[in-house]
Amino acid sequence: MSSECPLCFESIASPSELDLHMKTHTDGIPFKCTVCFETFGQATDLKSHLRAHMQEMSSSDCAAAKKKGSDGSSLKSHLASNTGKGPFECTVCHKTFRYVSVLKVHLRIHTGEMPFECEFCSKKFGCNLRAHIRAHTGEKPFECTVCTKRFVSSSHLRMHVRIHTGQDFSCTVCSKSFGGEQALRGHVRTHREELPFECMVCHKKCRTGADLKKHVRTHTGEKPFECSVCHKKFSQVGTRNQHLRTHTGEKRFECAVCNQKYAQAAHLRKHIRTHTGEKPFECDFCHMKFSDDSALRGHLRTHTGEKPFECTFCDKKFSASFGLRSHIRVHTGEKSFECTVCKKKFGHGQHLEIHVRTHTGDRPYECSVCQKRFTQTSHLRTHLRTHSKRKPFA
């Protein structure tokens, strides 16, 4: 029984020969989609996947080929032209693609078009709707060949495999490391591609019109996205959606190693580095490395002396936002840290921690001379002076 290639429509004698033939389209990599580059373990899985792309094209650009009376040959011809080799150039940013179908998906970055809607939650996508739907169905089609653990997406599987292989995704230009292949590919483009959209205020250049629009809001202060629960406003829809999860308690992002869940993908990426030991962010001054960029930014201020966080009550400045938040409680009198034993409240978490030791009897600070123990470092320092005969106020 003959089979037909879903890419070039050539008639193949048998399914096994079709498997061999498919590799001519995928550069020898078994069963890689030439539209979105997702890989599959079997040709049948790839064929099913390709039908989704065909349905996408046939529902929009290929409508003319489906006119009444057509025998389907015009549709096949049109689909073949969509999977033919380029290069095809984006008229907006001039990036080139091997396949026109990939170009069409790319163009949605510039147009903001999101034609695919999730039937469960009505969220819209420019592509990759199938991957999102798995979050609702619980389907996990991607299996690790080492430990047989399963995942909802190939990107999650690739990230997990690094636990077994120790593989690192580093930029060959600037040596910056990334959590996965897709993030690395996106970064590499910043070294080689044009950034055609320029901010008229600060002249920063952006890859897409949508990125520029987001950036401009940092100058205008516009916050068009409002939380439906507490009415707080945000400049980015993604930030608003992340905030909403603080109300719902939803934690969509699960660690492939320990199954701990997070509300934000960025928090998951940061957590994964506790398993891999990866520290991709390096200080230019002392070369100390950090697992996340926020820790690096805070560290850099120890070199620069920068204190960007200013108190609106007394104009005192701080190098870190948590330092400012802690200080503001001096003015507001807020005491949000409550002892679960005696209900006494404190303005600082550290003060509560010290207080709790009066209930637990914990004395973590030991004198190196006489082994006497204390609840606070300040008490230990005072005690040490009795050994040194030091009189600080003399």
TrEMBL record:
Protein keywords: DNA-binding, Metal-binding, Nucleus, Repeat, Transcription, Transcription regulation, Zinc, Zinc-finger
All copies of domain C2H2-type, residue ranges: 3-30, 31-58, 88-115, 116-141, 142-169, 169-196, 197-224, 225-252, 253-280, 281-308, 309-336, 337-364, 365-392
GO cellular component: nucleoplasm
Residues spanning the signal sequence: none
Keyword Transcription: yes
One Gene Ontology molecular-function label: zinc ion binding
Pfam families xref list: zf-C2H2, zf-C2H2_6
Subcellular location as annotated: Nucleus
Name under which the protein is recorded: Zinc finger protein 26-like
Taxonomic classification: Eukaryota, Metazoa, Ecdysozoa, Arthropoda, Hexapoda
